[in-house]
Amino acid sequence: MTKIMLGVVAGLVAGAAVTWIVLKQDAADDAEARKEAKEEESHVRRTDGQVFVRLDREGQQHAGLKTAPLEVATLEPEVKAYGRVLDPAPLSAQMVELANARAALEASTKEFNRLKVLHTPDQNVSTRALEGAEAALIHDRIALDAAQLKLVAAWGKSIATRPDLPAFVQSLASLDTALVRVDVPLGVALRAPPTGARIAAATAPELPVEAQLLGPAVTADPQMQGQGFLFLLGGSSLRPGAAVVAWLSMAGEEEKGVIVPRSAIVRHEGDAFVYVQSSADVFERQRVQLAHPTENGWFVDEASRAGQLAVVVGAQELLSEELKGQGGEQE
Q1: CATH of the domain at 123
Q2: Cβ distance 104 to 140 under 8 Å?
Q3: Is the same domain home to 126 and 244?
Q4: Quick check: is 23 in a domain?
Q5: DSSP summary character for residue 206
Q6: Are 54 and 277 in contact, with CB atoms under 8 Å apart?
Q7: Are 82 and 186 in the same domain?
Q8: Residue 13 above 90 pLDDT?
Q9: Residue 27's CB: how many other CB atoms inside 10 A?
Q10: What pLDDT score does 168 carry?
Q11: What is the DSSP letter of 303?
């Protein structure tokens, strides 16, 4: 009886072992099959930090992909700076003060000349009255000089001595133009003043507008502590107080690079990228530094990129395809 029981137990143990081995092998086969299927479906490959997306011709047509060669371009040297649109109200108030002082001087000058004429031949006007008129004239002249110096001290000669100052201030007050102060970062020293600038809202740096240099700022910005300049921006929608970013044009040898169209740029995890076609069905995502916006895109100072086929339509679709295939093979 004991032998029979031992035989039964041994048979059960052997059967369980065989079953476990078979199930384990089946599970391993299933995992391997899933892995192979995943790799077969993935369109993404990563090699030494580089990302490649594979998309056949049918997939490219479905995504509407279009490529264009990156064109060679040159750009005069630029220095990036930051600033804000100034409120014209203080300038307007000082201009009114100056105008009042000038009007007062004109009136006192006429009065003095009138009394002087009357005083000379027949003493129709007392010497005391003439001396009072002269004192008033001198007072008004000093007041005019003080108002002029105050204007120069606050805004600089380039603005204070403008022959069209009233019209200039009126254009600022009516928001037809904008007065912009720009400061270069502390530690950046310009050997010469800029020749001009391209200025854009800090919220839309890709759309800069040409600005006219008026002259250096007469005071230091308490935060930037760098060199400051005043620019006139015409036909701008920027309002007083708006933060701006500027690219100051400097004299010097032009930089060589390429223009990357805006439509080719995708952003991922805080960086900017373009997809470059490396073969008929492979696209590589490459990081680019967007430092200089232009009318047709961004100037990238990498002349070696000239001729590369960049995806100018459908780049976002490629990024979506890449992110869907995050589990792609690693090499």
Answers
A1: 1.10.287
A2: yes
A3: no
A4: no
A5: T
A6: no
A7: yes
A8: no
A9: 10
A10: 92
A11: G
Average pLDDT, the chain: 81
Q: Which of 144, 222, 142, 148 lies closest to 181 in space, CA to CA?
A: 222
Residue 198 CA to residue 86 CA, distance in Å, equals: 17
Report H helices in the chain: 2-41, 57-63, 89-119, 127-155, 157-160, 165-173, 315-324
Q: How confident is the model at residue 37 (pLDDT cuts 50, 70, 90)?
A: very low
Q: In this predicted structure, which of 74-78, 161-165, 239-243 has the lowest mean pLDDT?
A: 74-78
pTM over 0.70: no
Q: How many domains does the chain have?
A: 3
Please check whether residues 269 and 309 belong to one and the same domain: yes
DSSP label at residue 5:
H
Q: Give Cα 163 to chain centroid, integer Å.
A: 34
Which residues are paired to 211 by β-bridges?
A: 197
For residue 197, give its domain range.
78-86+165-249
Of 68-82, 152-166, 313-327, where does mean pLDDT reach its minimum?
A: 313-327
What pLDDT sits at residue 81? 92
The dihedrals phi and psi of 21, each to the nearest 5 degrees, come to: -65, -45
pLDDT bin (cut points 50, 70, 90) of residue 33 is very low
In a domain, 266, yes or no: yes
Does one domain contain both 145 and 188? no
CA distance from start to end of the chain: 63
How remote is the C-alpha of 99 from its chain's centroid? 39
Question: Of 304, 313, 305, 210, whose CA–CA distance to 261 is shortest?
Answer: 313
Q: Is residue 325 part of a domain?
A: yes
Average pLDDT value for residue range 308-312: 85
Minimum mean pLDDT range among 179-183, 197-201, 317-321 = 317-321
Q: Classify residue 155: in a domain, yes or no.
A: yes
Tell me if 211 sits within 8 A of 199, measured CB to CB. Answer: yes
Alpha-carbon torsion 33, 36, 41, 46, what sign? Answer: positive
